[in-house]
Amino acid sequence: MRLDKQVELASGRFDALSGRAFNAGEDLDRTEERIQEILEEDLKTLRMRSG
Q1: Closest by alpha carbon to 32, among 14, 10, 8?
Q2: At 23, phi and psi to the nearest 5?
Q3: Fewer C-beta neighbours within 10 Å, C or N terminus of the chain?
């Protein structure tokens, strides 16, 4: 992940998404626009599925 993205993530701008997964190539402005949707739909979480 590029350093500028790490700085953005550490800035507090995405604190609501603490514990969620981020992609190194992710558009963080778009992610910020979707914070409410991500929380409501429980997106960007890592899960293990059995079966």
Answers
A1: 14
A2: -95, 140
A3: C
Q: What is the pTM of this model?
A: 0.80
How far, in Å, CA of 26 to CA of 5, rounded? 9
13 vs 48: CA distance, rounded Å = 28
* Domain coordinates in residue numbering, the chain: 3-40
Hey, which bits of 1-51 come out as E strands? Answer: none
| Residue 1: pLDDT band with limits 50, 70, 90 | low
Question: Among candidates 48, 49, 2, which has minimal Cα distance to 23?
Answer: 2
